[in-house]
Design goal:
Layout (H helix, E strand, L loop, with lengths): L1 H18 L12 E5 L3 H12 L4 E5 L2 H10 L4 E4 L8 H11 L4 E6 L4 H9 L4 E4 L4 H41 L3 E6 L4 E4 L1 H7 L3 H4 L13 H11 L3 H6 L1 E5 L14 E12 L7 E10 L1 H15 L9 H18 L2 E9 L2 H8 L1 H18 L5 E6 L2 E9 L2 H14 L4 E3 L2 E3 L3 E8 L6 H17 L4 E4 L2 H22 L3 E10 L4 E13 L3 E3 L5 H7 L2 H22 L7 E5 L2 H5 L3 H11 L7 E6 H6 L1 H14 L2 E7 L6 H5 L5 E4 L1 H4 L10 H13 L2 E5 L4 H9 L4 E3 L7 E2 H17 L1
Parallel strand pairs: 1-2, 1-3, 3-4, 4-5, 16-17, 19-21, 21-22, 22-23, 23-24, 24-25, 25-26
Antiparallel strand pairs: 6-7, 6-10, 8-9, 9-10, 11-13, 11-16, 12-13, 14-15, 18-19, 18-26, 18-27, 19-20
Helix pairs in contact: 1-6, 3-4, 13-14, 19-21, 21-23
Bound molecules: ligand C2E and calcium ion (2 copies).
One calcium ion binds next to strand 23.
Amino acid sequence: MNDSGNNIKQYYSSCLYKNALGSDETKTPAVTILVADDEKLMRESVQELLSLYNLNCLLAEDGQEALDILAQQPVDILLLDLIMPKVDGFQVMKEVRTKYPDTDIIITSGEATFKNATLAMRHGVKDFLHKPYIPSELVKVINNLLEKQALQHQVDEMTRCIQVSEERYRFFVNNSPDMVYMLDKDGHFIFVNERATELLGYEHDEFIGRHYSEFIHKEDVEKAHFAFSTSLSNLDIAQKIEFKMKAKYEGTEPCCFESRSIAVKLNASEIPDRNSNNNHVGIYGVARDVTEQKRLDELIYFQLYHDALTNLPNRILFRDRINFAITQANRSARKVAIMFLDMDRFKIVNDSLGHIAGDKLLQKISKRLLTCIRDSDTLARVGGDEFNLMLPDIRNREDVINLINKITLMLEQPFNIEGNDVYVTFSIGTALYPDDGTSSETLIKHADMAMYNIKGKGKNGHEFFSDHMQLLLQQHLSIENGIRLAIQEDQFEVYFQPQYNTKLEIISGVEALIRWNHPEKGLVSPNDFIPLAEETGLINDIGEWMLDASCKILQNWIKHHSVLSNITLAVNISASQISTSHFVDFVLSTLKKYNLKPEHLELEITENTLMKDMDLVVGKLKQLSNHGVRFAVDDFGMGYSSLSYLQTLPLNNLKIDRSFISTIQSVNDKNSIITAIVAMAKELGMNIVAEGVENEVQINYVKSIGCPTVQGYWYGRPMPAEQLQVIALQQLNELNYA
Ligand code: C2E
Ligand code: CA
Ligand code: CA
């Protein structure tokens, strides 16, 4: 009896220890046993017996008392007599079954009929002891029951743990930002998480049993098949595959899934078959919604290849499109037209209406240009007011001309910008593939050249590229490079042309004229390189070199022959030189460097330069004039200068352009323009120089109208410094001698 009693304690405590997590091993588990029996002796003997095993024993003398105790505290085992006064064992059983399901009942009864036993079993009674029983029997029964209870506890605890873990798992799966799914081995969904239903708008049940391909965009189905078959062998590849999934309401309802397709990145593994090593029973995996990422990628891509103001393709994308069109054209034996469109006088719009208005105009123009072209054509913005247009797949030049006509017609309507009507014209150049080039670079360059040609001819028009332009460009390039080299290698030289005092018939001044001693071409005329030097900005270097070199020569003349100190040195100055920030300082420091008086120097500026940037020119000229530097208006009569403006400038000399002199045929000619110019100059208090006097008729004419200074072949051609020095010395010495 002792043995089995110990068993009870040991077993029960070990079970509790194992299952009650966190419970203290040393703590004796409290087992409460309620004995309900109307026989006092019976109750007390059981209590005595059980107290030996440290089991807490409560006593009730009838059914009612038993129920009262049960209502007050939990009871593990109820030893229940069936026949009791007032409330009997059957009634207690019923109530315990419904109210106290954790209390196990052992019937102890003398009435061991079959009927009683089955009734008791039906009420879930755990055991039946026939009175009288021997104590060891009771202990054994209790022992068994506690053992079962402990096991049940263990099972309950395990079930609870599983439930907790299952809930946790479910929480993670359903709250995952990714779609979690399982497919059977034929590709049908057997599980999806809530995220999948949220993302795609289908109910959970709409997924289950359907094949994955039903949820994938038509164009991506192949890719998905590949991904799922590959995932079984190569997870790395599968993970890199992206495809679009169809949302339920796509394109039909403007709800949150409106035309939405979801790009997903896949991560799949196979579900192994527990019964076989090599087989799998399906696939489980995670699909990540990368729609937002894709949208960002697309945005970045768009910004990289488009112009922010007009949303048109930019230079990079345009080149790419040309390359593509060239490949296509090779197959179809058609042509591709590359057009360069440069807006005329955009600067005026920008300067007069402001940059915001300028931007608006560009936006409106690009929209209108788009209406003139086909979907397959590409219009790109490649610079401030520069557009490129590509027409793939054209037959001939006619096709281009038709489009030009369309554009011209479209531009006849003004653009309304902030209440102003703005009329726009374009200078357009076109190069054709394959006629005018085979690479995108060459084609764009040639279209640009053709456009440039139109600009030179007075803007607003169209021209196709021609080989002649190419030749011109090559010549320009070689001259430009030649000039750079000439500066480095000192190939320039100063020539001097005398200016004569017509009354005294002696040299009063010289004009310094540049010559290029080209190693192959010999002496090159400035007419052949000065315009290009002005275009490229190289004129600044050339001009500074000329001023320095000619001042140096003059210093040398004066140093050795004081008579030459009466000679004025005229030097040509270009517009771009005046706009350099150090122009005034450079002139003054050069004079200082060669110890020359400012009165020695006369700067020749063409009429057009004077008119170009009036405010800037006036200021700088006045500064230099205040120091004593003289100024001459060069090529007068060729431009459109306003007299009132010229009056405000510190000018000393007016040089009548050669073209007027060349018209003089006889002394009796009454050339009204020359006469008017001379009269005007006198009024302004300026000296006159007649340029390009070549013959006797002309010299007599200019003398007859009282022109005091003449420069021309009649007196002398431009010549090297030494030669001029000899002539000047001879004349001046003769004069002094006389
Ligand atoms: P320009 O300033 O009008 O110079 C006068 C040009 O007329 C010189 O041509 C000269 O040789 C030429 N000439 C003078 N008398 C006669 C004549 O009786 N008959 C004819 N047919 N021509 C005559 P060049 O030296 O060839 O210079 C041409 C132009 O090159 C100059 O015209 C000037 O605009 C420019 N140039 C020359 N040197 C320089 C320079 O150092 N700087 C700048 N910016 N331009 C220069
Ligand atoms: Ca000149
Ligand atoms: Ca001139």
